[in-house]
Amino acid sequence: MTSLPIWTALDASLDFVLPAELEATRPPEARGLARDEVRLMVSYRANDHIIHDRFREIEHFLEPGDLLVVNTSGTMNAALSATRADGTPLEVHLSTHLPANLWIVEVRLKREEQTFPFSEMRAGERVPLPGGASLHLLTPYSAGEGRLQPARQRLWIATLELASPLQEYLARYGFPIRYNYVPEAWPLEYYQTVYATEYGSAEMPSAGRAFTPELIARLVAHGIQIVPLLLHTGVSSLEEHEPPYEEYYRVPVETARSINAAHINHKRVVAVGTTVVRALETVTDVDGVTHPGEGWTRLVITPQRGLRAINALLTGLHEPRASHLLMLEALAGREHLRKTYAAALQEQYLWHEFGDLHLLLP
How many CA within 13 A on the CB side of residue 336? Predict the structure, then answer.
């Protein structure tokens, strides 16, 4: 990991103004598009060449022998309505299920159909949840790198007391996490990738949302290899200068072998999403060899650290000063990012989980 604190590195990261009209407020299906009809910006790092197309044409930019690595984590109904003892309406976001049956959670203030950061919770509080369940806040969560959260205590370590198994409970009482740029509630199916196999993500690993079974079949027929891993994503509403926190990952033996073979054969390894990059970089050594493994990672990838496992990336468009931009800079360099993000703004690409995609190639 870089010796620079993440909040210092963010001060130097790509910054820009994101117009409100470029926030994707509805799924593509609600805009009259199929999943794979979102736009795709393809950029080549070697010469800064940029192409604008539709995602369903991605096979034209991939070659036989290329390796796509996907995150098969499924999205949970991770949001729950709640009421504080004093009557304050809240929304609890279950972020990360830790060992010893602990959780990282975010408690947000609910006003009408919107939620906002809430800083008045206190250690020891119990929050009643639907169906007779409850949340017990234990202690503020440390934001990583030895830096505790400020007094506003946005994230908490907590225990969850349920009368039924987790997924059964969430299926009955929970709903997908959404932020204020998405004004309408959408069912969980809109937040699920077609290849999800195991529930565990608080929010959708959205870079893979545009894939359809038909498109995957075409890619495989074209000679593209697709291999899985798992990383359960937490809540993404990180405050400015707040580093990501630990997330559970699992990289199978066959996936590690395929990645190493692709590098030996000089093929492109394309991570589908920043979650894939985070998992792979956690298990790839300084010599560029990827190992199987599972555990918890709080790795933050910066240009100073660099990348070892992948040489191409499919990702969404990230907000100004987001820590993910440091990962993209580690892959592509800041000047290439400046050019591509300027193009995305000029061409009116859409941001966030229901938005458009960017394929970065060597």
Answer: 24
Q: What angle do CA 184, 189, 192 make, to 5 degrees?
A: 110
234 burial class (0-12, 13-18, 19+ CB within 10 angstroms)? buried
Q: Which residues, 6 or more positions from 60, have their beta carbon under 8 angstroms from its beta carbon?
A: 53
Tokens of 214: 């038909």
Residue 2 to residues 223, 291, 334, Cα–Cα distance (Å): 37, 21, 17
From CA 288, how far away is CA 263, in angstroms rounded? 9
Q: pTM for this structure?
A: 0.92
**Mean pLDDT in runs of 10 for the chain (362 residues)?**
42 76 97 98 98 98 98 98 96 95 95 90 96 96 53 82 95 95 96 98 97 98 98 75 79 98 97 97 97 94 94 95 88 95 97 98 98
Cα separation, 68 vs 51, whole angstroms: 20
